[in-house]
Amino acid sequence: MDYLLLQMLNGVQLGLLMFLLAAGLTLTFGIMDLVNLAHGSLYMMGAYIAWTTISWTDSFVMGALLALPIIFVLGLVVEAVVARRLYARNHLDQVLATFGLILFFNELVRVIWGPAGKSIAVPAFLNRTVEILPGVPYPAYRFAIIVVGAAVAILLAWLVARTRIGMLIRAGASNRRMIGALGVNIELLFSLVFGLGAVFAGLAGLMAAPITSVKIGMGDDILILAFVIIVIGGIGSIKGAFIAAMVVGQIDIVGRAFLPDLLKTFLSASAASSAAPAISQVLVYIVMAGVLVWRPTGLFGQRT
Amino acid sequence: MIAALRTPRGLITALILLALAVLPLLTQAFDQRYLLSIGTRIVIWSIAAVSLNMILGYGGLVSFGHAVFFGIGGYAVGILSAHGVSSGWIQWPVALIAATLWAALIGALSLRTRGLYFIMITLAFAQLVYYVGGGLEAYGADDGLNISRSRFPGLIDLRDKASFYWLCFVALCGTLWFCSRFANSRFGYVIRGAKSNDLRMTALGFPVFRYRLVAFTLSGTFGGLAGILLANEGAYISPAMMSWVKSGDLIVIVVLGGMGTLFGPLYGTIAFFVLEESLPHLLDLMRKGWGEYWQIVFGPLLILVALYARGGIDSLLGRRS
Amino acid sequence: MKSKLFGTATIAALATVAAGALPAMAQSPIKIGFVSTFSGPQAAIGEDMRRSVELAKEHLGGKMGGKPFEIVYEDDQFKPDVGKQKSEKLVQQDKVNFVAGYIWSNVLLASLKTVTDEGDTILISANAGPSQIAGDLCNKNFFSTSWQNDQTPMAMGEYLQSKGVKSLYLMAGNYAAGKDMLAGVKRTFKGQIIGEDLTKWPDQLDFSAELAKIRAAKPDGIFIFYPGAHGVQFLTQYAQAGLKGQIPLYQVFSIDAITLPLQKELALGTLGAQEWVNDLPNDANKKYVADFKKKHGVYPSYYGAQSYDAIMLIASAAEALKGDVSNKDKVRAEMKKANFKSVRGDFKYNTNQFPIQNFYIQEAVKDPEGMMTVKTIATAMKDAKDPFYEKCPMK
User: Fold this and answer.
1) Phi, psi of A72 (to 5 degrees)
2) 10 Å Cβ neighbour count for C70?
3) Which residues contact A53 (CB under 8 A, 6 or more apart)?
């Protein structure tokens, strides 16, 4: 029972981290109709910038707080220089241009920070385990990720449901031409949303850095998974992205923690141990394909 | 035919085709064997790009998993060869059928979706095959497998670089010919019409889904052909040939060359390979050691193409008549 | 003619190549191609190898057997097809006498035939050692200055066996080399394998589920294979999960001079196996490590040491032949003697042209200046042969 709870918690933590990344992606897609492959680059830049600010301030929290506004500005710059020109384009032009951005950012990082990668230490006050249940230790830092992820999810839910910007976001996601007719300064709204998405991506990157590592291309690996999540959830839907992220987090953990034993009940031990990793590797893709065959616009997507 | 040569586009295309046709003679005369291997890869990738263009350029269906057909064509050849079936007369038809069937299957499932959903579902199926390939321990898993080239006794020896090149060139010409027939047929017009407005096409009574499925399937067949050739070119297969990066490269090539144009994918492939080969050298010329950072130039170049060169290289060759 | 073919960009490229080739022809130096990863996330490894190759060149005074030599570096971008293309360029266009390098098994396998068969050029692998090339695919033109994949984990398994470790939990990335590593440790470790996880490769960021399983399984030790950034990730999460100090960790290729600056204190005390360690007490190694440290301020890694040896191996053959490397049979015969001062100490070549060599157990420690490094603590295997050489038809 303890073990099950622990594994579920691991899934929640993974899901929340993915949600941070997916939220920005689904926002930019839902409102500006932009397929932004470079979202993963913002995740990477978040981690690298935080590495620099943390080494300036000698404090994880201060460094993180300093990094977020820088990432916001970086997001605004990317929006103004490249992204803004892409909103009216077809998806293909967007894919091409933002793919170009990925190449650019990866090499830029290598020029600035060198090829070897960096590591960010877990802040001292979180570098221990907490007992969530007696005898079940859980890394305090991972617990912090859950807290931050949940806080962002709640903040976002409030923002979308209760504020004027949120109203515009919802309006934009369901009918893009509508917000133009409402007499809103669209350019400003788009810049803000893009910057916000960048901050979420950067936050995900810097939160992930102490448990993974800071390396070139770290955003590319995780980007596809983020796309899988927003597609399962339905593009443009924050609620969908959240639910899909939680589902994907649990699926991932189930595939890794329980599938081998599950397979052993009807396969030989050696067949199970070779089949399990192969299946868990493609599990999310199978789930996504299944969802799309069943509902072609995702779980909470707009029907056309 | 002759009239087409009077336009710059026609002239350049004719010169490129002519140059490609005699490439082995040139590389031999100038003792540049390496250029022949680049040429071979350009021709093979062009076949894949032309086949992707059939659905992406003409049909507006952004498949992000087209490299999977490299893999299916290649693995069909490689697996048969690993079991001692070396005759190309068996290997090639089996590979083509495998690619066609797989295309029909994923087409039937994917074409129900649109837009980004379609991009992602084609990617998902490609990743599926990619990981299956990486798990085939009998065939080298992700280390890949060295294979022997297909045999066509008495007809052609694929180990001979020049003969193999010409075979690829003939295959490219065949693919281009088929694509031009496809694009200018009634069938092709339905596909192109559905790109801009599939509701109208449906309203006109065309079963758009079925038309698209046939186009997707044919595109897979030719993709498989490119896979067969690619496996024979390197005498090696590995899952890396169908990684999503390769699918991305194919999209870049088609857009770079000019979507929905017959020769665009060919221009795109040539430009892509020439840039990849020469950009590092050019940067190294500017300053030693810069060559390794060539992607910092290549990236923004792609952005510029996407932003300002809509219609790709093809549109630079003057307006279409 | 070519201008019609490829446009101006190619002319420029060809001009560069030609400009590089012309003065070279006048003196006809010995040319060595070196294929490694110089761009992308794995470029740090390629950089370490290049530094070592350059150091070897410096130590040789730029000459082999009285003849000048030059190195042409090519970037495989960590992709088999690109590696093959670049190898082809080295053989066909640059007409190199030797091709060396190769970090990755799949890049090496894709390039092998192009170099050794179609190009009849000698290839020296400075790292990759897939089982095929040690067995069925062994080739008279192929030499290794590293190891065969199974050997290093075999050495680790042997050591754990001798230390009376009763049970192990195995973890590696789910790819060919990962599976080889687990197979290798199982060849020599006869205790109980309590659990075994092949994790998603290369995109798994999180090991929480596996670490939770390990905690529940309570093994005597954990054996891992996570090269590069993954090794950094695993060590961090292993420590955060509170397992450090409870269940000891044993590794192959997961803690090295490239990852240690990132792993820092987390690595302290962890044992690993390797055929070369920076403190091996022979003169060649002392000189190599000292000069490398002086120049770059960091320790070289085993990738670098193997690359340094690859150049020295070529040099030994060139010396013996007075700089005339045109007769391939003679060159191969000389290289087979391995008559040079390897930084790992002297070794012999087996019939499949993989080294017969010692494997050591190393521990991650801090050096007197406080820099993280590894030191030798035991010899795990003496004069070890790989388990595949009998399948090689060469005698």
Assistant:
1) -60, -45
2) 15
3) A62, A63, A64, A66, A67, A70
Dist CA C360 CA C381 (whole Å): 7
CB C276 within 8 A of CB C302: yes
* C-alpha–C-alpha distance, residues B271 and C7, integer Å: 9
Taking a contact as any Cβ pair under 8 Å apart, which residues of chain C between 134 and 173 contact chain B?
A: 137
Q: Taking phi first (over 0 means left), then psi (-120 to 50 degrees means alpha), and beta for anything else, what does residue C355 get?
A: beta
- Separation CA B52–CA B67 (nearest Å): 9
3-state secondary structure A84-111: HHHCCCCHHHHHHHHHHHHHHHHHHHHH
Average pLDDT in the C319-342 region? 95
Closest CA to C259 of C299, C292, C229: C229
Write out chain B residues lying below 8 Å of A107, CB-based: 293, 295-296, 299
pTM value is: 0.89
Contact check, Cβ <8 Å, A97/B307: yes
Q: Which residue of C has its CA nearest to B237?
A: C110
Distance, in Å, from the CA atom of C87 to the CA atom of B226, rounded to the nearest integer, reads: 22
Before C202, cis peptide (omega within 30)? yes
pLDDT for res A204? 95
Nearest residue in A to C174, CA atom? A277
Euclidean distance between CA atoms B307 and A243, whole angstroms: 35
pLDDT tens digits, one per residue of C17-60: 444 444 444 458 999 999 999 887 788 899 999 999 999 999 99
- Tell me the chain A residues in contact with residue B255 when contact means C-beta distances shorter than 8 Å: 92-93, 96
Residues C231-246 have pLDDT tens digits of 999 999 999 888 988 9
- Residues present in chain A in total: 304
Q: What is the dihedral of CA C374, C377, C383, C385, to 10 degrees?
A: -60
Quote the minimal CA–CA distance from A160 to chain C in Å. Answer: 30
Q: d(Cα A171, Cα A178) in Å, to the nearest integer?
A: 7
Q: Is the pLDDT of residue B19 over 60?
A: yes
CA distance A116 to A95: 28
Asked if the model's pLDDT at residue B277 lies above 70, the reply is yes
**Which residues in chain A belong to E strands, given as ranges?**
129-133, 136-139
List Cβ neighbours of A97 (8 Å cut-off, separation of 6 or more).
A82, A86, B302, B303, B306, B307
Inspect the interface and report whether the beta carbons of B23 and C5 lie closer than 8 Å.
Answer: yes
The pLDDT assigned to B292 comes to 78
List of domains in chain C: 2-147+281-346 (3.40.50.2300), 151-274+359-384 (3.40.50.2300)
Question: What residues contact A59, with CB distance under 8 A and at least 6 apart?
Answer: A123
Cα–Cα distance measured from residue C300 to residue C308, given in angstroms and rounded to the nearest whole number: 10
> For position C3, what pLDDT does the model report?
36
pLDDT value at position A32? 84
Query: pLDDT means per 10 residues in chain A (304 residues)?
Result: 85 94 89 89 96 95 96 96 90 89 91 88 88 82 94 91 82 70 79 94 95 87 88 90 94 87 80 78 89 91 66
Domains of chain B, start order: 3-316 (1.10.3470)
Cβ distance of C17 and B234 shorter than 8 Å? no
Identify whether the C-beta of residue C238 lies closer than 8 Å to the C-beta of residue C215: no
Per DSSP, the three-state class of C367 is: coil
pLDDT of residue B233 exceeding 90, the answer is: yes
* Whether the predicted pLDDT of C372 surpasses 60: yes
Residues in CB range of B141: below 8 A, 6 or more apart: B134, B135, C175, C176, C179
Please write the tens of the pLDDT for every residue from B128-159. 999 889 888 889 888 899 999 999 998 999 99
pLDDT of residue C25: 42
Q: What is the pLDDT of residue C336?
A: 96
